[in-house]
Please model this.
Amino acid sequence: MISDKRLISIKVVGNGGISTSRNAESLGLIVTELVINSLKHAFDETKKDGLITVAYNVSGTDWQLAVSDNGSGKPDGVFAQPKTGLGTGVVKALATQLDAQVVTLSDASGTKVSVTHATFPAV
Model:
């Protein structure tokens, strides 16, 4: 998915935590879908320093998973329709199974998708 002309790094950060195998599987599928989405849509051939960051933080039984990129995002003033593609549907369905909320923020500096369980403080 990444041509030799594009240098895209993936950075993983987090404070660790414990999860059931079922939840870990769902989180893994969400991460995979969101990273692939960034690779497919966030970076054009002119972007030489692409970065995708996967962050997972835990606070008690609550957690937040965030996948962000420094790609093109949506420019200011562009109305973004809610996406309804297959990948977006999969992420939303998995988040629902995990009792989590999905929030997407996008602007000219990139896109961030956060999947937050219960009352984890917004980041």
The domain at 8-117 is CATH 3.30.565.10 (Heat Shock Protein 90). Confidence is low (pLDDT under 50) at residues 77-81.
